[in-house]
Design a protein that fits this description.
The chain is α/β, with parallel strands linked by helices. It is 43% helix and 23% strand.
Amino acid sequence: MIPKEILAKIRRIEITTSHLVSDVFAGAYHSVFKGRGMEFDEVREYQMGDDIRSIDWNVTARTGVAHVKKYVEERELTVMVLVDASASTHFGSVKELKNTLAAEIAAVLAFSAIRNNDKVGLMIFTGQIELFIPPRKGKSHVLRVIREALYFQPRGRATDINGALEYLTKVMRRKSVVFVISDFFENDQSAGGGFQKSMRIANKYHDVIAITLNDPREAVLPRCALVELADAETGRRVVVDTSDERVRLRYQRQAAARLDARGRLFQAMGVDHIDVHTHGSYAKALIGFFAQRRRRQ
């Protein structure tokens, strides 16, 4: 039984994103991801013009007449939403926290799936797999996905994107559309050497889209005085003199270099990515992404 206050928030999100879900996003995501797989329909006799590569040699040998396998486009999508719940996402300096932004985007994706009669599943991860909900259909299932995305309390603080993607590849045999929602901050990459290899493998079997969470304070430091900065995942602290212009410029350059490296990394892996910001509209970012995908197709 879902508590009333949770149902109220789910309803608020559904109302505020109804145009995005029903008119723009729901139809768009189906159009850009359609044809991701083919399913077997029937075997019929060979006709002039058929591709000889589709000949079913077993049936042909058994009947003495050439037969071909006929396939139809697989219309039903399987959508997996992977949400990073590590401590670095519990941050926001403007309108909302990054983890709140991630939960709302996950809810929009889930609403879009149910509107299109698709399956949707959820994985919440930190330095470990916190929660895995296999993809299914149905309103009650989608409500559970949204409830967990909004209110799940993780135990871990670190980030292991590599482990999350490896787990996904093991448990998801069917080709899926996979949204990875994260700020992609990893402090300890020694175990897996980062997420590059696992994301390449996941993108080979699935259609992986990275949704990157950003906050303006991660790119620019305000001019104040002595400020103590803390790493939310490791607890490491450092005192920074933000009144020093050289310090602020160095911080800005390092942040810009990190974002540029992240973008080039996704490009090298052939993974589409969407940048969303705590001070901006994720709706515009999503709409822009789907418009770009349609143009590419």
